[in-house]
Amino acid sequence: MIKTSMTRCIQCTRCIRYLSLVSGDDEFTLGGRGMYTEISAYIYKYLYNELSANIIDLCPVGALTSMPYAFKGRP
Questions:
Q1: 52-64 pLDDT, tens digit each
Q2: What letter would DSSP give residue 68?
Q3: Whole-angstrom Cα distance, residue 68 to residue 60?
Q4: Half-sphere exposure in the Cβ direction for 29 (13 Å, CA)
Q5: HSE (CB half, 13 Å, CA atoms) of 28?
Q6: What percent of the chain lies above the pLDDT cut of 90?
Q7: Whether the Cβ atoms of residue 2 and residue 53 lie closer than 8 Å to each other
C-alpha cells in the first residue's frame, strides 16, 4: 500500500528510525554507497506491521506516498 518514489528521497532516514524504534521492525535499510545510496526494503520483506502506514505522513518530501491516493486530492 506504500508507493515509493526514490528520486525524491533525501535520505533523512526518518522512516528507518521510525520502523526500528517505534514498531520494532527492521524492514527498511540504506543500501548502496555514496551517491547510489537509497532506502529500500530487504529482499522478500514487506511492510506487514500495523504501524507501517504512518511512514507516509512522516516523509518530509513525499518519497513515500499512499498507493491508492497517490497524487490525488484528499477527499
A1: 778 888 889 988 8
A2: T
A3: 19
A4: 11
A5: 24
A6: 3
A7: yes
E strand or H helix at 20: helix 14-21
The answer to whether the pTM exceeds 0.85 is no
Rounded Cα–Cα distance for residues 36 and 40 (Å): 12
Q: How far apart are CA 20 and CA 62, in angstroms?
A: 20
User: Which residue matches cell numbers 516523509?
Assistant: 59
Rounded Cα distance between 9 and 63, Å, is 5
Tell the residue number behind the cell numbers 555514496, with chain if given. 34
- Alpha-carbon distance 31 to 38, whole Å? 5
Phi, psi dihedrals of residue 39, rounded to the nearest 5°? -90, 130
